[in-house]
Specification:
Elements (H helix, E strand, L loop, with lengths): L1 H21 L7 H19 L6 H21 L10 H25 L13 H22 L8 H12 L8 H18 L2 H29 L4 H13 L1 H7 L4 H20 L5 H17 L4 H16 L4 H18 L1 H5 L12 H13 L5 H10 L5 H4 L6 H8 L3 H7 L1 H14 L1 H12 L30 H16 L9 H17 L3 H6 L1 H13 L10 H15 L9
Helix pairs in contact: 1-2, 1-4, 2-4, 3-4, 3-24, 5-8, 5-9, 6-7, 7-8, 8-9, 8-11, 8-27, 9-27, 11-12, 11-27, 12-13, 12-14, 13-14, 13-26, 16-22, 21-22, 24-27
């Protein structure tokens, strides 16, 4: 026993020292503190707990702890990649993080997250209606009293102009643009001006997101989630600032987040036999199509979900497998042959090559050992002399614009094999440069969180008749104060951290694997696939709206995972 106490003291010291090193991180410190506090509490309970973990539980605990340790250590390479104390700092970061998560995960493995709550056969429709109306009333009041006709950025205005000019590209998902065109047309027909037309779209979006959130809350009520958790979920969806701001922002990412949430919930309802099976299947198909069509990376993420579903459940749920395969085929046809027939231009190749573009640019900035042939090849893509002054570690847009000054797509087509060979030869020669470039380009999606813009509280588009109007100065001041102050408090930073929410989803995946519940494990996959797609193609290191689906789904996934219920069927 004394030996265990001394071992616990050593672990606690390592956790504390690791957290001290992370004080100097560029990332949010609050999530690290939460992890450290949770680790110390779990260490205390693990010391008192007598049950030994099985070999399977120990293996999974080590695998996931290693993953978390690698993420946090790599994301903070600037803390240990220089100076004489680098090795010591690396040791403290890696092993301190590893020990922290070993204790947290071991604690989770020993817990039985099962309540005595029976599934609810009544009251869930009232919960749905209350949640829906609450969210609609709050966000509609904000829209019409102080933020009319909603928030539009330059990208939003360009998408609106597509509906006016009739010249479309799939850079903004075409089918989202068609939805926008339909609602703008209705608004123009009813009210006769573009401001009211945009507001019509915003009302639809408010209602759609409220429906998505209310449906998720209702499902949690149906499975017998504790009352406190249902109330907390309603408050999260109704009062969290980014849900308020995004519900009246014209971005494809908003409705996409709603589709991902709906798809996850419908999939859960089908596999856990909650509610009417036919209605659930129809809902899954419709939300799955939205999942695939309303963001470019959605289709690839959906394919990943489907493949994992087939691997996990093999010959089971044949109707569901057919439905998912049908969604993939139909959405592919809609995204490619149909758009080609309609002469809708696809995004240029630079959009999908952000990561390798950034890696090669970092190589040019840091290393001067390119051969003449390599230099000549690169110069066909972009002006190599301008790369050092153009490259920004956190966003690929400047480099993409540099490429677009030349006919880089033709150069890639003519010398595809040469560029692939160049990329891998440089990768093998300077692997650390390429790793650092990838880390810097993606770390916002898997580390603690970074101070980067979350929303745009303004309205562009005066040239097409869109003007911001405030009808209640007092409410406008109150809303602005709420949005700004909520995001400034350091203690609340975890609520705004993409990486922290992803950590929470990974904890849910771990718990579902430990519980050997394939359904719960599958619930984490849609949003994790979206994050994975960002890790191979994101143009920005920490774009909140790209990961908005994480903030729509994580609390629901957590409730699904950690709130048990009796497993009889629901009618």
């Amino acid at each position: 026993m004394a030996k265990n106490k001394w071992l616990a003291i050593v672990q606690a010291a390592l956790i504390v020292l690791c957290t001290c090193v992370l004080w100097y991180s560029e990332a949010y410190f609050a999530p690290y503190v939460l992890v450290a506090l949770a680790a110390l509490v779990c260490l205390f309970f693990n010391l008192k707990h007598e049950r030994q973990l099985s070999r399977f539980e120990n293996t999974m605990t080590c695998v996931f702890s290693l993953l978390f340790a690698l993420m946090i250590t790599l994301a903070n390479y600037n803390l240990w990649d220089n100076g004489a104390l680098g090795v010591v700092k690396f040791f403290l970061l890696f092993f301190g993080t590893f020990i922290s998560f070993v204790n947290i995960l071991s604690f989770l493995a020993r817990r039985e997250f099962v309540t005595d709550n029976a599934p609810s056969k009544k009251g869930h429709k009232k919960v749905f209606l209350f949640t829906f109306l609450l969210i609609v009333i709050i966000n509609s009041a904000i829209l019409f009293l102080c933020k009319y006709p909603g928030f539009l950025t330059m990208d939003s205005v360009l998408q609106v102009k597509q509906t006016i000019d009739g010249v479309y590209t799939n850079s903004h998902p075409f089918y989202h643009t068609m939805l926008l065109k339909l609602l703008l047309s209705i608004g123009l027909a009813l009210f006769g001006n573009m401001n009211a037309a945009v507001a019509t779209y915003m009302v639809f979006q408010i209602c759609f997101m409220a429906l998505s959130f209310a449906f998720a809350v209702m499902t949690m009520k149906e499975i017998g989630a504790p009352k406190w958790s249902v109330i907390a979920l309603v408050a999260f969806f109704a009062l969290m600032p980014y849900h308020m701001a995004y519900s009246i922002t014209l971005w494809k990412d908003v409705i996409f987040g709603g589709f991902v949430l709906l798809y996850t919930v419908f999939l859960y309802r089908i596999l856990k036999e909650v509610g009417n099976s036919k209605s659930n299947l129809v809902g899954l198909v419709l939300s799955g199509l939205g999942f695939c069509l309303f963001r470019s990376n959605g289709w690839f993420a959906f394919v990943g979900v489907t493949l994992l579903f087939v691997l996990l459940f093999k010959g089971q749920y044949k109707k569901l497998a057919i439905a998912m395969a049908t969604i993939i085929v139909v959405s592919f046809v809609l995204k490619h042959p149909v758009l080609k027939m309609l002469d809708v231009a696809q995004p240029d190749k630079a959009e999908s090559l952000s990561i390798p573009i950034q890696q090669v640019a970092r190589d040019v900035v840091e290393n001067k050992d390119f051969t003449e042939e390599q230099y000549r090849l690169l110069n066909q893509l972009a002006d190599v002399e301008r790369i050092p002054e153009t490259y920004l570690w956190y966003i690929s847009d400047p480099m993409k614009e540099l490429l677009r000054e030349k006919d880089y797509q033709q150069a890639l087509a003519d010398h595809k094999a040469d560029y692939i060979k160049l990329y891998f030869s440089r990768l093998f020669k300077h692997p650390w440069t390429y790793v650092k470039a990838w880390v810097d380009q993606t770390k916002g999606y898997w580390n603690s969180g970074y101070p980067y813009w979350i929303w745009c509280l303004y309205t562009d588009g005066e040239d097409i008749g869109i003007y911001s109007t405030v009808h209640s100065g007092g409410m406008n001041k109150a809303v602005n104060s709420y949005l700004s102050h909520f995001s400034k408090y350091k203690v609340l930073k975890p609520f705004f951290s993409i990486g922290f929410f992803v950590w929470c989803i990974l904890l849910c995946l771990y718990a579902s694997i430990i519980k050997k519940d394939k359904v719960l494990a599958l619930m984490t996959i849609p949003v994790l696939m979206i994050i994975l797609s960002l890790l191979v193609a994101t143009p920005v290191f920490s774009e909140f709206r790209y990961a908005y689906s994480v903030f729509c789904t994580m609390p629901v996934i957590a409730l699904m995972t950690f709130v048990g219920f009796k497993r009889n069927q629901y009618q």
